[in-house]
Amino acid sequence: MDNNDLPPNDKKWNLYSSKKIFLPTILILLYLTILFVPISLEQESHLLVFFGRFHPLVLHFPIVLILITTGFILMGFFNPNFNKPIIIRSLLWASVFFSFITIVAGFLLFIAEAYSGDMVNNHLDGALITGISISVCLIIYESNLHQKLKGGFVFTCFLD
């Protein structure tokens, strides 16, 4: 790992690092609360349908970001000169952000168009598990970066 890319280990970095872990933790809690939100509307909302229709458009972007992140991490394992934490952090943060947008858009489409059935419920559960996994992966990477450790087995399993 390139030590020039790592922040200094002091109290200011500890405060900064705790802020970096705060947002993914909030997103995990939001994903868990989606399970308890009512899943039907009494009247159709055209605004929810409008935003929900963006789900297929933004769906593949977090998938590609996670695949690129996995590629960068694997290349960093095999070639230490290629390991750049700033690239991996940027890709992970973008993955967390766009997976949140994708999950919210899919959930809006789910409740606004009254989709039902086991396949749709499994799709929602899979999306929530994926969003939680990406957020946990970011928390693990940020804490490992703070401790100047490489990503371990658990991090790689969550990422894949």
From TrEMBL:
Keyword vocabulary terms for this entry: Membrane, Transmembrane, Transmembrane helix
Record has Transmembrane as a keyword: yes
Domain of life: Bacteria
Residues annotated as transmembrane: 21-39, 59-78, 90-112, 124-141
Name recorded for this polypeptide: Permease of the drug/metabolite transporter (DMT) superfamily
Provenance organism: Cyclobacterium qasimii M12-11B
Species classification: Bacteria, Pseudomonadati, Bacteroidota, Cytophagia, Cytophagales
